[in-house]
Amino acid sequence: MVIEKYFHLGYNYKTITDVLQVHHGISMSVRTLKRRLQSYNLVKRKINVDEDLVRNIIRSEMQGPGQLAGYRKMWHILRLKHHVMHQGSLLLKFFMN
Q1: Helices 13-24 & 30-39, crossing angle to 10 degrees?
Q2: pLDDT, tens digit, for every residue of 3-55?
Q3: Distance from the CA of 47 to the CA of which of 20, 80, 81, 90 falls in 20 to 30 A?
Q4: Which pTM value belongs to this model?
Q5: 25: region left, alpha or beta (phi > 0 left; psi from -120 to 50 alpha)
Q6: How far apart are CA 41 and CA 46, in angstroms?
Q7: 3-class secondary structure for 22-78?
Q8: What is the largest distance, in Å, between two alpha-carbon atoms of the chain?
Q9: Which tens digit of pLDDT belongs to each residue from 43-85?
Q10: How far apart are CA 7 and CA 20, in angstroms?
Q11: Residue 63: exposed, middle, or buried by beta-carbon count in 10 A (0-12, 13-18, 19+)?
Q12: How far is CA 95 from CA 15, 54, 63, 87, 88, in A?
């Protein structure tokens, strides 16, 4: 779904509504967008991620072409590819070990 794509790319709510209007012809208020995202269980501030999940994703990414990825690259991989919202300190903890 288009809304989910822009959400996972990290766009703010106003930008998402503007992009939907300009590129997709979908007119929607920010409040409606927030309700839709909530119905899809997508929220920006809820960070409740299982450490084992993050650890396993990092390990699997480090086995492939991402083995030379640094902290920032891995942060983007987790967010964009795996749709895992996490605290940066959690990722940093894995990179320090």
Answers
A1: 100
A2: 988 988 888 999 999 999 999 999 999 999 999 999 998 877 656 677 788 88
A3: 20
A4: 0.56
A5: left
A6: 10
A7: HHHCCCCCHHHHHHHHHHCCCCCCCCCCCHHHHHHHHHHHHHCHHHHCCHHHHHHHH
A8: 48
A9: 776 566 777 888 888 888 888 776 777 777 887 788 778 877 6
A10: 12
A11: exposed
A12: 32, 11, 15, 13, 11
Q: Locate 75 and state its tokens.
A: 């942060």
- Please tell me the total number of residues recorded for the chain in this structure: 97
Tokens 């503007």 found at: 18
Q: How far apart are CA 75 and CA 11, in angstroms?
A: 16
Tokens 């699997």 -> residue? 60
Q: Which two tokens stand for residue 35?
A: 């309700």
Q: Residue 81 is encoded by which pair of tokens?
A: 């590819």
| Site of tokens 């999940």 | 53
